[in-house]
Specification:
Blueprint: E1 2-6, H1 10-22, E2 27-31, H2 39-43, E3 52-53, H3 59-68, E4 73-75, E5 80-83, H4 88-101, E6 105-107, E7 112-115, E8 120-123, E9 126-129, E10 132-135, H5 150-156, E11 166-168, E12 172-174, H6 178-181, E13 186-195, E14 198-209, E15 213-215, H7 217-221, H8 223-230, E16 238-243, H9 250-260, H10 264-267, H11 269-278, H12 283-291, E17 293-300, E18 308-310, E19 318-319, E20 322-323, E21 329-331, H13 345-368
Helix pairs in contact: 1-4, 1-13, 3-13, 9-12
Length: 369
C-alpha cells in the first residue's frame, strides 16, 4: 500500500520514518516543493535546532523517536532540548539518513496542485495514487524555507475551513523613537500588550530593542496577539507596556534615584539615560516610566520573519490527525490551528502530529490484515 506525504518538513519526515519503522512494506513517497528537504529545520533555534522541550506535552514520544534513529540529545536552560552536536544540520542529516535506510522516496521540486477526494495527488511531476495521504505542507511563515501557505488552499478545496492567518513568534514594529536610539540593548522585564486600553496578554522575559521596534522571546511570545490585531480590517490601538524593573516598586526606584542620581545601576546607562531624558530628570516620573514604559506598536515584521503561523485548520475538523471529511487524509504540523510559545514546543507538536498520523495509518493497515 502507498502513503503520499506532502511536504518534507518536520512533521512530514517524522511521519514517513515512523510509518516505515512500523510498516516496512509500505510504499512511502514524500513530495517536496523546494529543491531540498528540511530547509526550515536547518533554520530553527538559530541553527542549533531546539527540537523539543522537557516540559512539552509529547516530549517522551519525541525523545523516543529521535533515539530510535540515533540522534543523541542534550538539555539546556528552561528545559530546551537540542541535538548533542548543537547543530541543526545534524538533525536533518539523521532524518534523511533514516529516510534513505528505510527506502523512503523523496521527490523534490514537486509542486502539489490538487488533492482529490479519491486520494490522488496532482503535481508538477505527475499524478500519484495513494491509499493514505498526509498533508504536512507547513504554514505561511518564511516562504523561502518552504512554507508558502499552499497547503491551506489544497485543504479548503476538500471542505476544510481555515481560520484567519497571522504571523506569530515574530518581532514587533514600533513608531516610538526610543527603541531605535538604544538598538542592541537587551533587558529582562515584564511586557503587556494593550489593545484600546485593555490588557490582552502579558509575558516576562528578555526584550531586545532594535531599529524597527522590539524583539526577544518575551515580545515574540506575545506577537500572536499583535498579528491577530493588525490582521483585522480595523485594528485596535496597540501599546506595549513594559515594566523594566518588575522586582522593585516605584517607591524603591525613587529612593534609588534620589540616592544614586539615576537608574544606571539597575538598567544600565543606555536605558537609564533614555528614561531620565523622557522624565526630564524628575525622579518620580522616571520611576513611573520605568514601571510603565509605553511603546506604540504598529504591527509585526510579518510572515517572512515569523517562526510560525497563527491560525489554520481547526482541530475540531480532525480526529487523531485524520480529516473528519476525507477518510485516510491526515493533516499535520503547522497547517493546523495549534500554536505554542518559544522553546521547542511548536516543533514538538510537529513531530508528534507526524508520528501519531503514522501510528493511526499503521493501526488501520493492521486491522485489515
Amino acid at each position: 500500500m502507498t502513503t503520499i506525504i506532502i511536504g518534507a518538513g518536520a512533521s512530514g519526515l517524522a511521519a514517513a520514518i515512523s510509518l516505515k519503522q512500523q510498516l516496512p512494506c509500505e510504499k512511502v513517497i514524500i513530495l517536496e516543493r523546494l529543491s531540498s528537504p528540511g530547509k526550515k529545520i536547518l533554520a530553527t533555534g538559530n541553527g542549533r535546532c531546539n527540537l523539543t522541550n522537557k516540559y512539552a506535552e509529547h516530549y517522551t514520544q519525541t525523545k523516543a523517536f529521535f533515539e530510535s534513529i540515533g540522534l543523541v540529545l542534550c538539555e539546556e536552560e528552561q528545559g530546551r532540548i537540542y541535538p548533542y552536536s548543537l547543530k541543526a544540520e545534524t538533525v536533518l542529516e539523521i532524518l534523511l539518513n533514516a529516510c534513505n535506510n528505510l527506502n523512503i522516496e523523496i521527490i523534490t521540486d514537486c509542486e502539489v496542485t490538487e488533492i482529490k477526494s479519491n486520494l490522488t495527488v496532482h503535481s508538477s511531476k505527475g499524478i500519484f495514487k495513494a491509499d493514505s495521504i498526509i498533508a504536512s505542507a507547513g504554514g505561511m511563515a518564511q516562504k523561502n524555507l518552504g512554507s508558502n501557505g499552499s497547503g491551506y488552499a489544497l485543504l479548503k478545496k476538500l471542505g476544510h475551513t481555515v481560520t484567519d492567518l497571522s504571523p506569530a513568534l515574530v518581532q514587533l514594529t514600533s513608531s516610538s523613537k526610543y527603541p531605535r536610539s538604544i538598538k542592541g540593548t537587551r533587558t529582562r522585564c515584564s511586557i503587556a500588550i494593550e489593545l484600546n486600553g485593555v490588557i490582552a496578554a502579558e509575558e516576562s522575559g528578555e526584550i531586545l530593542f532594535t531599529d524597527y521596534g522590539i524583539s526577544g522571546i518575551a515580545a515574540m511570545n506575545l506577537s500572536y496577539i499583535v498579528g491577530q490585531n493588525f490582521a483585522k480590517k480595523a485594528p485596535e490601538k496597540c501599546i506595549a507596556v513594559l515594566d523594566l524593573v518588575p522586582e522593585m516598586s516605584e517607591k524603591q526606584l525613587i529612593e534609588h534615584i534620589e540616592t544614586f542620581g539615576s537608574l544606571c545601576g539597575i538598567l544600565g546607562s543606555k536605558l537609564s539615560d533614555i528614561i531620565s531624558k523622557q522624565a526630564d530628570a524628575d525622579a518620580e516620573k522616571a520611576a513611573k516610566f520605568a514601571k510603565n514604559w509605553r511603546l506604540i506598536i504598529t504591527g509585526t515584521k510579518g510572515f517572512d520573519f515569523a517562526q510560525i503561523t497563527c491560525g489554520g485548520i481547526p482541530l475540531c475538523e480532525i480526529s487523531e490527525f485524520e480529516s473528519n471529511y476525507i477518510k485516510n487524509l491526515y493533516i499535520c504540523g503547522e497547517l493546523l490551528d495549534k500554536q505554542f510559545e518559544c522553546g521547542g514546543f511548536n516543533l514538538d507538536f510537529a513531530w508528534h502530529s507526524g508520528i501519531t498520523a503514522a501510528k493511526r495509518i499503521t493501526e488501520k493497515r493492521n486491522d485489515k490484515n
